[in-house]
Amino acid sequence: MVKKHHVEGYENFCKFIKELDSEGQVVYVYFCGSKLENGESWCDDCQRAKPVIQKELENADPNAHFVYVEVGGKILIALFRKDPKTKLLVLPTIIKWKCPQRLEGDQCEKPELVNLLFTEED
Q1: CATH number of the domain residue 108 falls in
Q2: Is residue 62 part of a domain?
Q3: What would the pLDDT profile of 9-63 be if each residue is shown by its tens digit?
């Protein structure tokens, strides 16, 4: 089963990804708007993408890592935008870490694209 991790905020993400022991394993990073008191993200697109991503994640390599990153509020996204490793433009975004493959915005709502990201070998 895919190893799932949850991180909140830019500094915590940077520390986590630096310390993650993933040698020889695929790492997917999912950037989403932080959750409100009701447990749902403030990002409507993220809410629509969530069930698609959860379902398609079942097809990913069981040795892979899936890092769920709550970016914080809208202003805090800027920290992720400026980072050359994340280059976050929109939410939601899924990145195959250290690879060029990524899905952005409504692409994350399309099962066929999410499945391809999770199952395609480099």
Answers
A1: 3.40.30.10
A2: yes
A3: 999 999 999 999 888 899 999 999 888 888 888 889 999 999 999 999 999 999 9
The total number of structural domains in the chain stands at: 1
Strands (E), 1-122: 3-8, 27-32, 65-70, 93-96, 102-104
Q: Catalytic residue among 14, 46, 99, 108, which?
A: 46
Residue 63 lies in a domain: yes
Residue 19: inside a domain: no
Of 14, 43, 99, 108, which residue is the catalytic one? 43
Query: Phi and psi dihedrals of 117, rounded to 5?
Result: -60, -45
Do the Cβ atoms of 39 and 101 come closer than 8 Å? Answer: no
Is 46 an active-site residue? yes
pTM of the shown model: 0.92
